[in-house]
Design goal:
By secondary structure, the chain is α/β, with parallel strands linked by helices. The chain has a single domain (12-324), classed as TIM Barrel (Alpha-Beta Barrel). 25% of the residues lie in helices and 17% in strands. The protein has ten helices and twelve strands.
Length: 326
């Protein structure tokens, strides 16, 4: 098992397949002309499978594939099929622009649930936020995935003045559609122009929804990052990922592997451990993994506290969200 100095067991691995994406969301990708990693710096298919297998041998029970957008990678289908043979819970986070091309591969790999990133239900605003005209394709693909029996969570990064007035529109979507909307508090990363004035907290979201609906608290799963809620007579549900106002670090079980083979023991960690270089040299990377996990900070990468109003983003050291991998 992979255990940190605070006795947290880590059994959930998130693997970024690429830092490339076919959308340009401002909170994830700093610039339109972002310099993507050259192919030789990325983990190759066999390297991904090798490292994933090593993590599984040491207690990892769930793997989530992320990006960038994982399905823009040319060998994504082959990677998905290979990881599907590891016998763990395999899932993916995607912007859903290309999932219609991979339905068969997702089924063959045993993937049953997907997280879909979608920050607006307005076609014009979608193009403004992502700088791409893909809204209709995303909505069509969500319907396609539901028709194929996939369980879907819709990830919505909520930013004041951008899409906070759409919260009730997303809730209304769950009336007849069996999806979970996951509202995510806006978090600081390199280049995303975060400040506390743009943050809508868990309690503020609940206040908005509570004025129109009667909210019931739902049962959370072990190591859950979200606080779950239901509304009577709704086919779907909603949840809030309250990283900034009510962090869930005490039960964190997550490990992140970037597309260039660096292990990050926390989303906000400034430290990274290079597994890929060691692997290519033929070295034993397990001690590097164990050391990285053991040294994990108690909360928020050791970079800031729960007092989000006092965060100085100039003092934070991290990658942009697209370079970390969800």
């Amino acid at each position: 098992m992979l255990i940190d100095q605070h006795n947290r067991i880590h059994d959930y691995l998130r693997i970024s397949l690429t830092d490339n994406c076919n959308l340009r969301c401002f909170y994830c990708m700093p610039e339109e002309d972002y310099a993507f990693m050259p192919n030789q710096r990325l983990m190759q298919k066999d390297e991904i499978v090798h490292l994933a297998s090593l993590f599984v041998q040491n207690g990892v029970k769930k793997i989530r594939l992320t990006g960038g957008e994982p399905l823009v990678r040319k060998d994504a289908a082959a990677i998905i099929k290979a990881l599907g043979k590891l016998g763990v819970n395999l899932s993916m986070t995607t912007n859903a622009t290309r999932v219609h091309l991979f339905i068969d591969e997702l089924n063959q790999a045993g993937i049953q649930s997907l997280n879909i990133s979608l920050d607006t239900l307005q076609k014009e605003k979608f193009q403004l936020l992502t700088r791409r005209d893909q809204f209709n394709q995303v909505k069509t693909n969500i319907d396609l995935l539901l028709a194929h029996g996939f369980k879907l969570k819709i990830n919505v990064v909520v930013v004041k003045g951008m899409n906070d007035h759409e919260i009730l529109d997303f809730i209304a979507w769950t009336k007849d559609t069996p999806i979970q909307i996951r509202f995510i508090e806006f978090m600081p990363f390199d280049g995303n122009k975060w400040n506390s004035d743009k943050l809508l907290t868990l309690q503020e979201m609940l206040n908005i929804i509570g004025k129109e609906y009667k909210i019931a608290t739902a049962m959370s799963e072990p190591n859950d990052t979200s606080k779950r809620y239901t509304i009577e007579n709704h086919a779907g549900s909603f949840a809030v990922i309250s990283t900034m106002s009510a962090p869930f670090c005490n039960t964190c079980n997550r490990i992140r592997l970037t597309a260039d083979g660096k292990i990050k023991n926390c989303l906000f960690s400034s430290e990274e451990t290079d597994l890929l270089t060691a692997l290519r040299k033929g070295e034993n990377v397990l001690p590097l993994i164990e050391d990285s996990i053991y040294k994990k900070h108690r909360e928020l990468g050791g970079q800031f506290s729960k007092e989000f109003e006092k965060i100085n983003t100039d003092l934070l050291h991290n990658r942009s969200m697209i370079a970390i991998g969800g």
